[in-house]
């Protein structure tokens, strides 16, 4: 199918689902999903935005702004992953426990408010990555219209641009816990270190990057076209990161890439 056909199929899927709750993060995928759900279903859509320790405040505010711009009703729910030892022990199935917690909350909201289905922004490319959260989605009965319509990440960006969504070229984002290697316990202190370090880089104008937490070492993954700028600011960045508690600050020579913490799992 071409992009127009996929978009048409997405509309068909959404209409079949009826009254829906959208698990909304403010990212590229879920923003397109929310936009199209609103077009097809109107007032039969409610966006739920999860506020948690692993979700930066800048992302929470961006999600609220996007939802307001779309004219969609939304609610904020608080999720506390750091109280769940199955999550904080940070094994390779960490995301499963996070998604079980989130989707269970959304399921309760749906039942209490007469919503028929819950949908999320999983896309066709996601099935090729290691994503234990997909198991939770299947167990709880969450639908993924973008995936069902065979929309890839690039399709979603193109369609978002066509629809005039400001999110079309928004950098990819994943929860802050993904910055901590599997097997290293997730703590509030580590999450705060990563959040503050990444906020500092955002404030310096960098666009697509990750700060990976390796105990005393902060490993920065950044797009190659921004590496020289980062090196020019190396002293300023080092000083800030040491204040945050890191002893060493390194630059990953391969640059930014999604799922780098999963590489050893795929071997």
UniProtKB/TrEMBL annotation:
It comes from Fontibacillus solani. GO terms for molecular function: sulfurtransferase activity. The active site is at 175 (nucleophile and sulfur donor). CDD domains: LarE-like. It holds the Pfam family NAD_synthase. GO terms for biological process: purine nucleotide metabolic process. This is NAD/GMP synthase domain-containing protein. Residues 19-87 form the NAD/GMP synthase domain. It comes from the Bacteria.
